[in-house]
Design a protein that fits this description.
By secondary structure, the protein is an alpha/beta fold. The chain has 2 domains: 152 residues, Ribosomal protein L4/L1 (Ribosomal Protein L4, Chain: A, 3-Layer(aba) Sandwich); 50 residues, no CATH class. The chain is 33% helix and 16% strand. The chain has a 6-stranded mixed β-sheet, sandwiched between helices. A hairpin with a 5-residue loop joins β1 and β2. α2 crosses α3 and α4 crosses α5. The longest helix has 17 residues. The chain starts with a strand and ends with a helix. The mean pLDDT is 93.
């Protein structure tokens, strides 16, 4: 089992915690990690882009000039793609970019991402993440104390005070165990996680 230090909100080490190898010590599957990231980005695309083809733009019913004898190249419509205001060739149309991964693949990808963070010593466990009041400065001081500038803060449950305090920090994102994603784990340098959240992750994914 991997062992990590547990810190308090001031950055002081207050103990150690053993992590389950079933979640934090698996063999990293880079293919599934990549697939999970691609899936999240694809599923977040709106897919509402649209442009008109030559059949959909207005005008162009009349041939601009006769077929032969003008010295110009032959043209059938002023709404062909080469004309100003003409239609678009292979115009983009609204579509659904989303695709599915099965449950086991998603879990394997998440475990791989968590394992890589632990192996890279970018996984910091806090005994309890809590603030007495909404204060961005207090949140920034806490992250500075544990040397986590670009951080993903993982809470066991929704804490409006912590979430609101971190909202104005551009390099910090808060999430909960239930909404933890592979993309976020890779995007942020350091995972700052509540001790209770670690136990919940082990219960859910072990």
């Amino acid at each position: 089992m991997a062992k990590v230090k547990v810190y308090d909100m001031t950055g002081k080490a207050v103990g150690d915690m053993e992590l389950s190898d079933k979640v934090f010590g698996v063999e990293v599957n880079e293919h599934l990690v990549h697939l999970a990231v691609v899936q999240q980005l694809a599923n977040s695309r709106q897919g509402t882009q649209s442009a008109k083809t030559r059949n959909e733009v207005s005008g162009g019913g009349k041939k601009p000039w006769r077929q032969k004898g003008t010295g110009h190249a032959r043209q059938g419509s002023i709404r062909a793609a080469q004309w100003k205001g003409g239609g678009i060739i292979f115009a983009p149309k609204p579509r659904d970019y989303s695709f599915k991964m099965n449950k086991k693949e998603k879990q394997a990808a998440l475990k791989s991402a968590l394992t890589s963070k632990v192996a890279g010593e970018k996984f910091k466990v806090i005994d309890k993440i809590a603030l007495p009041e909404i204060k961005t400065k207090a949140m920034a001081s806490f992250l500075s104390a544990i040397e986590a500038e670009k951080a993903l803060v993982v809470l066991n449950s929704v804490d409006d005070i912590v979430i609101t305090s971190a909202r104005n920090l551009p390099s910090v994102k808060t999430t909960q165990v239930g909404t933890l994603s592979v993309y976020d784990l890779l995007k942020y340098d350091t995972v700052v996680i509540d001790q209770a959240a670690v136990k919940t992750i082990e219960e859910v994914y072990a």
